[in-house]
Amino acid sequence: MKKSKPLAAFNSPFELGVRMVYLLNSLQPAGADLQKLVLLDYAIVYSDDLGGPPSLHTPVPYRGSEYMSRRDLIAQGLYLMSTRGLVAVVMDEAGITYFAGDTARSMVGALTSPYLRELEGRCRWAATTFATLSSKDMTERFAQQGYLWGAEFEGAAAREHQ
User: Fold this and answer.
1) DSSP conformation letters of 30-89
2) How far apart are CA 127 and CA 55, in angstroms?
3) Using the 8-state DSSP alphabet, how is residue 12 labeled?
4) Theoretical Cys-Cys bridge with 13: which of 65, 76, 84, 160, CB 3.0 to 4.6 Å?
5) If you ran DSSP here, which 8-state letter would residue 134 be given?
């Protein structure tokens, strides 16, 4: 009998898929493309970096690069959640847009852990703050905040030259 590999719980497609369900539920009736969801994921996890409520996760050094390294995991999570009716996918001439699926609201309402209630609040904040911005506008706004992330890289570069 072949031994199965244990599934990762943290930073896994499942974890990011759950966050996407909460996020898309907060964006309703609007949806978002993958790039905007990647940026919104960073915003909900590290909201304090962007002038929002306290960050959902502990800020870690070099976190600025996380929003790009999670792109594939978010895409996998969206696919996983779409197979369960939690995420809907629309493909048209504008590209691929993700929406909260038919059962997203039920899931968000049924789960009541303190972490998920905090997640829901950050998602509402991110939706209110960024929903009207395009992916391009969000990228520019994040870049304007770059001094928060760039200092981490500048510090590392300075240590290398010593």
Assistant:
1) --B-HHHHHHHHHHHHSGGGGTSSSPSS---TTGGGHHHHTHHHHHHHHHHHHTTTSEEE
2) 15
3) S
4) 76
5) -
DSSP 5: P
- The single-letter DSSP state of residue 2 is P
Question: Rounded to 5 degrees, what angle do the CA atoms 144, 161, 145 make?
Answer: 10
- Tokens 């994921």 — which residue? 41
pLDDT in tens, 94-108: 899 999 999 999 999
Non-local (6+) Cβ contacts of 40 within 8 A are 23, 32, 126, 130, 138
Cis peptide before 29 (omega within 30 of 0): yes
Task: Report residue 26 as tokens.
Answer: 């907060």
